[in-house]
């Protein structure tokens, strides 16, 4: 996985810098998301793995599948990836691009998993507290994980705050076994 990320980083950075210069960060995010989804399709994966097609043919086929979802500059980017045999990196490129975009926008996406559905007001209060704590704009996504028993697990990038009963029980069991 780390190797794929290393290979994808220059392409993601190039797409990000181009999109930033063209004031089209959102548009490129959408195009890369579509391209990543297309690259993970079983049918497309078979076509990309075909030894009978040249890199140019694979690139054109990929562009045709994406259709109008990708503009001319995006199509050139896809053709460049195909020429360098890097179409399989599109999911990683899209993820890295989103990270670069979030860093520029001083925002972070936060996933809040709880044992039960949290109200919008609770999520808003949590978002405000995290905004103050992290010093960034926060986009909160709530989800339900009944295995937590109670409490919440908050994931913001590489930061994980586990205030769940399941997490506390695991810490207790670890301390007892030490």
UniProtKB/TrEMBL annotation:
Q: Which residues form a coiled coil?
A: none
Name any one Pfam family assigned in the record: OSCP
Just give the chief location class: membrane
Family, similarity comment: Belongs to the ATPase delta chain family.
From the Swiss-Prot or TrEMBL record, give the protein name.
ATP synthase subunit delta
How does the protein's chain sit in the membrane according to the entry?
Peripheral membrane protein
Q: Could you list this entry's UniProt keywords, alphabetically sorted.
A: ATP synthesis, Cell membrane, CF(1), Hydrogen ion transport, Ion transport, Membrane, Transport
Q: Which organism is it from?
A: Sessilibacter corallicola
Q: Which domain of life is it from?
A: Bacteria
Kindly list the places in or outside the cell where this protein is found, as annotated in its UniProt entry: Cell membrane; Membrane
The answer on whether this UniProt entry bears the keyword Cell membrane reads yes
NCBIfam families (alphabetical): ATP_synt_delta (TIGR01145), PRK05758.2-2 (NF004402)
- PANTHER family, per database record: ATP SYNTHASE DELTA CHAIN
Purpose: This protein is part of the stalk that links CF(0) to CF(1). It either transmits conformational changes from CF(0) to CF(1) or is implicated in proton conduction. F(1)F(0) ATP synthase produces ATP from ADP in the presence of a proton or sodium gradient. F-type ATPases consist of two structural domains, F(1) containing the extramembraneous catalytic core and F(0) containing the membrane proton channel, linked together by a central stalk and a peripheral stalk. During catalysis, ATP synthesis in the catalytic domain of F(1) is coupled via a rotary mechanism of the central stalk subunits to proton translocation.
């Amino acid at each position: 996985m780390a190797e794929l990320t290393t290979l994808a980083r220059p392409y993601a950075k190039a797409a990000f810098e181009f999109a930033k210069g063209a004031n089209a960060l959102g548009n490129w995010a959408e195009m890369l998301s579509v391209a990543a989804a297309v690259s993970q399709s079983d049918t497309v994966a078979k076509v990309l793995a075909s030894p009978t097609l040249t890199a140019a043919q694979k690139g054109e086929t990929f562009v045709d599948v994406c259709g109008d979802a990708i503009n001319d500059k995006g199509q050139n980017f896809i053709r460049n990836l195909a020429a360098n045999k890097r179409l399989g990196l599109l999911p990683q490129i899209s993820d890295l691009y989103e990270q670069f975009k979030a860093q520029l926008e001083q925002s972070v996406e936060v996933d809040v998993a709880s044992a039960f559905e949290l109200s919008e007001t609770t999520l808003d209060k949590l978002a405000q507290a995290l905004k103050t704590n992290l010093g960034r704009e926060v986009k909160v996504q709530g989800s339900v994980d009944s295995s937590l028993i109670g409490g919440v697990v908050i994931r913001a990038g590489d930061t994980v705050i586990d205030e769940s009963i399941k997490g506390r029980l695991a810490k207790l069991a670890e301390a007892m076994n030490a």
